[in-house]
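As a warm-up, study this chain.
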Amino acid sequence: MSVIREDDLIESIADALQYISYYHPADFVEAMAAAWEREENPGAKQAMAQILVNSRMSAVGRRPICQDTGAANVHVKIGVEAKTDFKRSLQDICDEGTRQGYLRDTNPLRASVVVDPFGERKNSGDNTPCMLSVEMVAGDKIEVDVAAKGGGSENKAKFTTLNPSGSVADWVVETVETLGAGWCPPGILGIGVGGNADKSMALAKAALNEKIDMADLLRRGPANREEELRVEIYERVNALGIGAQGLGGVTTVLDVKIKSFPTHAASLPVGLIPNCAATRHIHFTLDGSGPASFTPPSMDLYPEILLESAGVQTTKVDLDALDADTLASLEPGQTLLVSGTLYTGRDAAHKRMVDMLDKGEELPVDLKDKAIYYVGPVDAVGDEVIGPAGPTTSTRMDKFTDRILADTGLKVMIGKAERGQVGLDAIAKHKAVYLIAVGGAAYLVSKAIKEAAPVAFQDLGMEAIYKLRVEDMPVTVAVDTKGNSIHKIGPAAWKRAPVLA
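Now compare it with the structure written out below.
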């Protein structure tokens, strides 16, 4: 019997993490392209067009689809008869594969894992440890699922224990309606039913690695209760009208995946985990013949899309000439091409700025009448100005917003998804505006960045403040100077009664 080598597992995990950083699964591309074709809301259609164009650009350029290259999720099924030469723990072996995958010179991936969740939250620097789960199964092979799970969608994971007579569909639909757009729809819902708390969540995570087949299911019709539940949730969630990026539209989910397990007679545990528009996963098997190999998807999968002819009118805005009249003229849902100076800043930078203001210290950057972009980019390679640089979820900055707007004179914020009421109130109070870039289109967005230089807080790594110069960066007005939000207006306009058999 062939021996499965430790080095082969390490190399396979490293190659898998590189592969999924720039190749969407083929089934996801096909499902997103079909959703783009049938989308009726021009704004949502444009967002999906950007996601598809970005996906193709990433595949050709072999650079990350999203700046959040995710925590490495590694699920290993070890055959009880498998022969190995392993000398280290499986965690150590998979961590080495993760380390090599994220630190590859030709395509460095952003390290997002912090080693001390309660204290300083210091970045590990190599995205280790991976999130490892293990099963012992029949056979003499090792099967591995590798996924990269970004914070935006992972943060929306939910769990409940229903009464045995409770409705899984009702709970899922009601929960998704509260999630907002931080998980970057359209994507996939993974649902685990049964077991106990940890088992149902593990089932939900595993479900996300299954092939997208909702179109086939709708054509042939459900054959059992699980498939009936999938269709019901799919139709009801899409009827919510949330749409791509929360702008309102026909499609919020591309598929609903369900896995179940026996449970206690008094319980009905349900786990829900969404996958975003940067869905990234792959499966491979090791049998002792060497490391896994991965075949790139065909570029024929992608529809022909010309962003400039997608039927959306655009307005150009100079970020270096912002005034009250310009800001007041912007309306929710309006598409802009912004150019000029743009500073970056995420959670850690905002906290540090507020701490400095509390101490009466001068900030290292002048934000008066300027714009800030909530982003933590991937490192540049070759002649790149910056690596993939898509937006992060903006609600995390809400608690800092009033103070920053009041004390710095900042006027424009760019991120992704909705703002909470605290953020909306601050925006209206200070007559600022909030714009969104498309989550899941990081490589495309980075091409609008013509200059980039760190100017403050370099010790924060990817959360340092950069000064950017952008040209025609595509964004959408999400919140106007009065506090009106497209994330409320859009879904309300597109909400409809679900079509159920």
